[in-house]
From TrEMBL:
Natural source organism: Roseicyclus marinus
Domain EamA, first and last residues per copy: 163-299
Keywords noted in UniProt: Membrane, Transmembrane, Transmembrane helix
Segments traversing the membrane: 6-25, 37-57, 69-91, 98-118, 124-141, 162-181, 193-215, 236-253, 259-277, 284-303
Matching Pfam families: EamA
Presence of the UniProt keyword Disulfide bond in the record: no
GO cellular component: membrane
InterPro entries assigned: EamA_dom, EmrE-like
Protein name: Membrane protein
Keyword Transmembrane helix carried by entry: yes
Lineage, highest ranks first: Bacteria, Pseudomonadati, Pseudomonadota, Alphaproteobacteria, Rhodobacterales
Length: 304
């Protein structure tokens, strides 16, 4: 099995755990930006430690950054930070499973952005998988019961869909930029280039959002540090998931990785049903099944 497939599945699994812990922080303790910063602040030292350990074990030197690397890394870091804030905000509007799923518009958007920025096209089966997955997202974008649902217009323009689509755009941009960043580093193996790009990105995110919190929500920094019992494990799952994502991006185009990464929804719905006790409608389940079909198309097409 190709390494990028294994890395993507691991990334999706750890990301699901991270979203669960982040949701807990958002609904119990922290503000949207506080819960967002907690993810970066607690994962950045762990990412740096992982990079140092890999350097020590392999005896490699740090890859040499290029001007293109800094452009891709900074753009990806800011895009991911804002996308994460959108998802955390979304948790207050839809249930856990639907909130994460709406962000999956990043699959089709990463394909388009990747074509524009990196000139990386997708094959016909992958394009089909993306279309099937997008149909599933559309089914999941109906307003929750009790809200006004007026057909396609209501599906596209309710607040939850707006946050989901914006997060998808930003996640798609960050995915393509992170692939560009790993490809722009000179020297080192795939894992070393992935870890290097990850450390730079999380440092930028921790510093940028930390300064914003100090200016606008100073009390949140103390609350984040006090939440270490939850934020610590969240930082660990975030680091493991991000390292797996970056490794997959170093090996395969962002569109392929993101399309297969929809397997996260299987984990998400299991957590939603059996841990959080949330109930999903028949239409939401149908949308999730379409996304599973999309994942299977990618998986079977990628096997030798």
């Amino acid at each position: 099995m190709p390494v990028w497939i294994i890395a993507t599945i691991l990334a999706a699994f750890f990301q699901n755990l991270r979203f669960l812990l982040q949701r807990h922080l958002k609904v119990t303790t922290l503000s949207t930006m506080g819960a967002t910063w907690a993810r970066f602040a607690f994962s950045m030292p762990l990412a740096a430690l992982a990079l140092a350990l890999w350097l020590g074990v392999t005896g490699q030197a740090l890859p040499s950054p290029t001007p293109a690397f800094w452009g891709y890394a900074l753009t990806g870091a800011i895009g991911q930070m804002l996308a994460t804030a959108c998802v955390v905000t979304l948790f207050g509007r839809r249930n856990f499973a639907v909130g994460v799923t709406l962000a999956k518009t990043d699959v089709i958007l990463s394909a388009l952005i990747g074509l524009v920025l990196l000139g990386e096209a997708v094959s016909l089966p992958v394009a089909l998988a993306i279309v099937v997955g997008f149909a599933g997202v559309m089914l999941l974008s109906d307003p929750p019961r009790g809200d006004v649902a007026l057909g396609l217009r209501a599906r596209l323009f309710n607040a939850a869909s707006g946050y989901g689509l914006l997060s998808g755009l930003l996640f798609g941009l960050s995915a393509v930029c992170y692939r560009g960043a790993t490809l722009s580093l000179e020297g080192g193996d795939d894992l070393l280039r992935a870890a290097t790009a990850l450390v730079v990105a999380t440092f930028v995110q921790t510093l940028t959002l930390g300064l914003w919190l100090a200016w606008r929500e100073a009390g949140q920094i103390g609350r984040v540090l006090a939440s270490w019992r939850v934020s610590g494990p969240m930082g660990l799952t975030s680091m493991l998931g991000s390292l797996a994502w970056f490794t997959a991006f170093a090996l395969q185009t962002a569109a392929y990785v993101k399309a297969l990464g929809q397997i996260e929804l299987v984990f998400t719905f299991l957590v939603s049903a059996f841990w959080l006790g949330e109930r999903s409608s028949a239409k939401e389940i149908a949308g999730a099944l379409l996304l599973v079909v999309s994942v299977l198309i990618i998986f079977l097409g990628a096997l030798p």
